[in-house]
Amino acid sequence: MDPRKLFIDDRLQGICAYCGATADSRDHVPSRILLDEPYPNNLPVAESCTQCNQGFSLSEEYFACLIECVIQGTTIPNIKFRPKVAETLEARPSIRQRIEHSKEVGENNNVIWKPESERVKEVILKLARGHVSYELGIHHIEPPEIIEILPIPVMSEEQIRLFFSLENDVGHLYPEIGSRAFINSLTGKATAYDRWHIIQGDRYQYALGQSCGDWVKIVFSNYLACHVMWQ
């Protein structure tokens, strides 16, 4: 079996991973705004239509800036900020203003962030769909049964252990035959199937599998833990 060629059903190719329309473009999964330069070689890509490829850009910029602002505790860029995010906040003051407006000061001067939840969900669901399409050759354009988003600092030790150990997620199934995950498993290459795949250091990692449904877990900047599942 040639590891350079996928052997999934031809009817599943040429389809946008995000909306099911005819694909005429390719999209990095994850998008580069979520990573630091120099970017990793051979980033995963998903087939997409031009409208989806371009349509998520503003939400992804907002999402990347939001995470960094929350981690740094401010919307004003400084030397601790990721360079790409600092550049975006300077170039797009409207994004900084929107994030600033989501900040509240609670009791004991604790900062509370109330982000645009639908925009955050949009980005996470987009990434999950892209990973499932790239790794398994499966398209889930329907809404998921589960979408969980939790900041790691507020998770209990047991929640963190279960999330990262994958012990409740890993099954005894093989990936979709002919898919990238199947071929990589067969040839001993790195795969995200039933295990964590680190795209870039502390910036982005993900895992996926098919126990009790098709699921994806993503961790952003060692801060935000996300879980999406289709049953």
Walkthrough of the structure:
- This protein has 231 residues and is α+β, with helices and mostly antiparallel strands.
- It has 7 helices and 9 strands; from the N terminus they run ββααααββαβααββββ.
- It is globular.
- α2 crosses α3 (83-91).
- The chain has a 5-stranded antiparallel beta sheet, with helices on one face. A two-stranded antiparallel ribbon has the order 1-2.
- The protein has a domain at 11-56 and 117-230.
What's the Cα radius of gyration? 18 Å
Low-confidence segments, given as residue ranges, are 1-9
What is the approximate shape?
globular
Helix content range = 25-40%
The SSE order reads EEHHHHEEHEHHEEEE
Q: Describe the main β-sheet briefly.
A: 5 strands, antiparallel
Question: Helix segment count?
Answer: 7
N-to-C terminal Cα separation, in Å? 30 Å
The structure class reads alpha+beta
Q: How many E strands?
A: 9
Strand order of the largest sheet: 5-9-8-7-6
Overall average pLDDT: 88
Strand content: 15-25%
Brief characterization of the structure:
The protein is α+β, with helices and mostly antiparallel strands and 231 residues long.
What does the secondary structure layout of this molecule look like, with pairings?
Blueprint: E1 25-28, E2 45-48, H1 50-55, H2 57-72, H3 83-91, H4 93-101, E3 103-105, E4 111-113, H5 117-136, E5 146-151, H6 157-165, H7 180-187, E6 197-200, E7 204-209, E8 214-220, E9 224-230
Antiparallel strand pairs: 1-2, 3-4, 5-9, 6-7, 7-8, 8-9
